[in-house]
Design brief:
19 strands; Dipeptide-binding Protein, domain 3; 4-stranded mixed sheet; disordered N terminus; 7-stranded mixed sheet
Length: 496
């Protein structure tokens, strides 16, 4: 009996010690991501706003190819491809066993549907022009699809990696704006408009599974609210932190990591080139010389940003520094306005809902233009209004926008595009670039295109948008740079 009681006492004491030891910390499998802009809809193939890709690219929707974190193009739904010697036929070989989130199978028929849908007469795809070289799409077998081109297209694999070319299913495509159905490692769970979009892990994913079980994107455009949310832990990361004036506080706090990277975002004062008196190159040049880029970078972006003088990222090997052509020179600006007979000028300045480069930058630019005698009427628009009035309706004089799509200098050659830049020589350059594969010649053409835009003052070229983020120090796997608009959470995880 004494032996039993002694053993029981030992067991009881050991159990008491165990109860006093804190439970091992569980590694989190959820994350809350803060973003400054809410997508107007959820279909990247029928929406111009980059905010759609910020949430859905690679997470919910996938293409035949995709951008990796370093900007290279890698296989995605297509595991490989063959290119004919004449460059006119691409044959894509698909992974087997892929399904959409609703359980329907993904195969070559869906590829044909998706690519044909881009080029259809009633297509709403904002980047339809990128895929104009596609002449025919043919299903060879369920896992093989042939794409025939009307001309060689050295950018095809690159363009197929854009969010505008993700694969969709005929059964669900029409409803993707509100209920996106893709093939990615996360599926869409729900949306609270004005607040959040929630994703959940796709347990049936065909590729490497996500390490997170759930992701909530919280839309917080106000810089003060963004600061408070990440300080309080309501969000775990803000990949594009809107309160850059507070960055120093996070740099000195061991709970957080500040991440500064590059983007493909050419931030410009877009000009309606067809609208008098902006159709006069002297007036456009006058506007360019009235702008002090560094004042905008300092005042609107707290010093984050690289000045540009044309429409290409300084990270591109073909970039030419042409900032001197539009150097800050108010006296030159006033003289050009006098030469153009535009000494009493009032222009509309329509701004999208971006507090930093657009709203703050707009106020700074308005002051700079006023200093040379150009009055502006500022109108702050929500995204749906900006898309309708400016991007689609071309009802504007000036606007400020960051074009974050990769290597998109060719948009200035598009008929009916909102810049209205109808320059025959520029179109000729881009037409040759589109069919040129030789790297040396492509560089020459890209540099000629940059000079054309700078010398004709097709826009007020401001700065390359920096990617300034704040993250919980234990969170790993978010992109440092932004080779395409995306908040890719497919490889995100928490350290123990």
């Amino acid at each position: 009996m004494k032996t039993f009681l002694a053993a029981a006492a030992i067991v009881g004491a050991f159990a008491a010690q165990l109860s006093a030891v804190p439970a091992l910390a569980q590694v989190r499998t959820d994350v809350n991501i803060g973003l400054p802009l809410e997508p107007p809809s959820l279909d990247p193939t029928a929406e111009a706003a980059a905010a759609v890709d910020d949430v859905l690219y690679a997470n919910v929707f996938e293409g035949l190819t995709r951008f990796a974190a370093d900007g290279t193009i890698v296989p995605s739904l297509a595991k490989s491809w063959d290119i004919s010697p004449d460059g006119l036929t691409y044959t894509f070989h698909l992974h087997a066993g892929i399904t959409f989130h609703d359980g329907s199978s993904f195969d070559a028929d869906d590829v044909k549907f998706s690519l044909d849908r881009i080029n259809a007469a009633d297509s709403l795809n904002a980047q339809k022009a990128l895929y104009a070289s596609i002449k025919a799409v043919t299903v060879v077998d369920p896992l093989t699809v042939k794409v025939d081109l009307s001309r060689p297209d050295g950018n095809l694999l690159y363009n197929l990696a854009w969010g505008d070319a993700v694969m969709v299913a005929p059964e669900s495509a029409a409803n993707n704006k509100v209920n996106p159905i893709g093939t990615g490692p996360f599926f869409f769970r729900d949306r609270i408009e004005g607040s959040t979009i929630s994703l959940e892990k796709n347990q049936a994913y065909w590729g490497a599974p996500a390490r997170l079980d759930s992701v909530i994107f919280k839309f917080i455009g106000d810089p003060t609210a963004a600061f408070a949310a990440i300080q309080a832990g309501d969000v775990d990361a803000f990949p594009y932190f809107p309160a850059t004036e507070a960055i120093k506080q996070f740099e000195n706090d061991p709970r957080f990591r500040v991440v500064v990277g590059s983007t493909e975002g050419e931030t410009i004062l877009a000009i309606n080139n067809a609208k008098p008196p902006l159709d006069n190159v002297k007036v456009r040049e006058a506007i360019a010389h009235a702008i002090n880029r560094q004042d905008i970078i300092d005042g609107a972006m707290n010093g984050f940003g690289v000045p540009i003088g044309t429409f290409l990222s300084p990270a591109n090997p073909a970039y030419v520094d042409l900032t001197a052509l539009s150097a800050f020179d108010p006296a030159r600006s006033k003289a050009l306005l006098a030469e153009a007979g535009a000494t009493d000028l009032t222009l509309s300045l329509k701004l999208p809902p971006v507090d930093g480069y657009a709203r703050k930058g707009g106020e700074i630019i308005a002051q700079q233009l006023a200093a040379v005698g150009i009055k502006t009427q500022i109108t702050n628009l929500e995204w749906a209004q900006w898309i309708s009035e400016v991007f689609t309706g071309r009802d504007y004089d000036l606007t400020i926008i960051s074009h974050v799509e990769p290597n998109d200098i060719g948009i200035f050659a598009r008929d009916g595009y909102y810049f209205n830049y109808a320059n025959a020589e520029f179109k000729r350059i881009i037409s040759e670039l589109d069919v040129t594969a030789d790297p040396k010649r492509r560089t020459e053409l890209l540099q000629a295109a940059q000079r054309n835009l700078a010398e004709n003052y097709a826009a007020g070229f401001l700065f390359e948008l920096a990617k300034v983020g704040v993250e919980n120090a234990k969170l790993q796997g978010l992109w440092q740079n932004q080779p395409t608009p995306a908040t890719d959470v497919t490889a995100v995880y928490w350290e123990p």
